[in-house]
Amino acid sequence: MTKANTPSPLTIKHVQGASVLVIDAIKGITNLVENMHRNIASVSAIVGRTPQGRTKGITGLVYRSVRGVTGVVGWSIDKGLSAVAHPKMAKVVDPVLEPVLRRLAKQLDQRKASGYRETVLAAINGVLGDRLCATGNPLAISMALRQGGQRFIPGQTLPSGEKPKSKLLVMVHGLCMNDLQWMRKGHDHGALLAQSLGYSVVYLHYNTGRAVNDNGQDFAQVLEALVSHWPEKLECLTIVGHSMGGLITRSAAHHALELGLSWPAHLQQLICLGTPHTGSPLERAGRGVDFLLGISPYTAPLAKLGLVRSQGIQDLRHGKILDEVEGARWPQHVKMYVVAATKSAYSSPSSGKPAARMSGDGLVPVDSALGIG
């Protein structure tokens, strides 16, 4: 159904984005260590209020120096890479750094595209995607429709070169993943479904670290453009959402109904694979750990590490699909199918056994995937 996976190659902008993350990480770790140093030196109570402010004297000077040097190095790398990409900026490059950066740029231009790189990029977006967007980091993934890893705009010829059919299937991946991961050991789930049932298939690629509500709003508009510009008369639209993909689709449907968009009228069914409709215990447990770390001045700085996780991950705590707590709408004519998996024996909720609440695929309990409660 699709061409071989051909993800875009690594570019200078990706290296710039990665360097920003590294510099921010070094600064963050420096702040964390300084905060722990300050709290220990102040001989705080085991449980209680955390001291405020930074360290002073020689100790404070050391930490300020580390942050200052880190900032200068980060600025030099960023400007150097920009100059390599834009020769007119060459005058800002350090003479020692310039030849190194130019060799790096040459290697990047020759480096082949890597599916592994797409996987790493998707994982980074899952954990830090909201921050990447807020800071304009080039590593941030922008939402797009793709086939075989190739982006296309609705109305254009499909990357596969196939003639569009009257039935359309949209595959929506889950947290920290990308559209290429529907392919596993040579088996493309979307392509097989499309071939077996007579569909054309397209894949959504998006930043899973953003809030589910924000991605839902954007997905609603992407689907509207796709359906409006589909060259064939559309008889059926089906969406398959894996994990977070199911939440994104439910959010998109709500926003589409609120805005009066046309695509929900074509939607016939949504299939949710392991979607945490009522939340994920792992995220709730992570929130609990953050609270416990925060009650002691000696561990409070470590709680900031847990808070690094993106809003997208935090939304999985209770299966949140909107900014509002309640009021989600769903097109009544659309059938929703929910699929759950379990790695251990499953007991029905009526049994009262703990296994009924905890069994699942390792991330999402069966009850949550089935929407029970």
Question: What do you see in this structure?
Answer:
By secondary structure, this protein is an alpha/beta fold. The chain has helices at residues 12-41, 57-85, 97-110, 115-134, 189-197, 212-228, 244-259, 281-294, 300-306, 311-315, 354-358, 366-369, and strands spanning 144-147, 150-152, 167-172, 183-184, 187-188, 200-205, 236-242, 267-273, 335-339. The strands form two sheets. Strands 2-1-6-3-7-8-9 form a seven-stranded mixed β-sheet, with helices on both faces. The protein has a two-stranded antiparallel sheet with strand order 4-5. Helix 1 packs antiparallel against helix 2 (57-85), helix 2 (57-85) crosses helix 3 (97-110) and helix 6 packs across helix 7 (244-259). The longest helix is centred in the N-terminal third of the chain and has 30 residues, at 12-41. The protein starts with 11 loop residues before the first helix and ends with a helix.
